Amino acid sequence: xxxxxxxxxxxxxxxxxxxxxxxxxxxxxxxxxxxxxxxxxxxxxxxxxxxxxxxxxxxxxxxxxxxxxxxxxxxxxxxxxxxxxxxxxxxxxxxxxxxxxxxxxxxxxxxxxxxxxxxxxxxxxxxxxxxxxxxxxxxxxxxxxxxxxxxxxxxxxxxxxxxxxxxxxxxxxx
Length: 174
What we know:
By secondary structure, the protein is of the alpha+beta class. It has helices at about 1-20, 40-45; strands at about 40, 65-75, 85-90, 95, 95-100, 115-120, 135, 145-155, 170-174.
């Protein structure tokens, strides 16, 4: 009988232990879900951007870039109530440079390189999981977001092999 009382006392006491822990901070998540949005054109919704074959000698140091290749995302049928938008790219982050997409895992893949996504000026990188520059939208014409993808060296020594990467994108309306 005494053993049952001791076990019950321990269980009751452990229930209060988790309540007594203090929080170190609070994170509030805010946002809005809208019922009106543009349509991503079928030509640009799912696409392959071919960065081509690049010699590893094109990269002499970390930060060197090669194979700039333009690609677009086109928004159609934007309602008049939606005035601005940006694009956010998500995917596996390169462990050596958090601004870049990591290469797709596999056997014999290239090392020392990732894929960077840039604004249309080809010099402003869009860090992974960060919105691109905002664009004013037209409700009467297609809205083209232009981007440049490049290989970016993350080390002085780049090795040969497949150098593929993948990203999902989300349109954020302002």
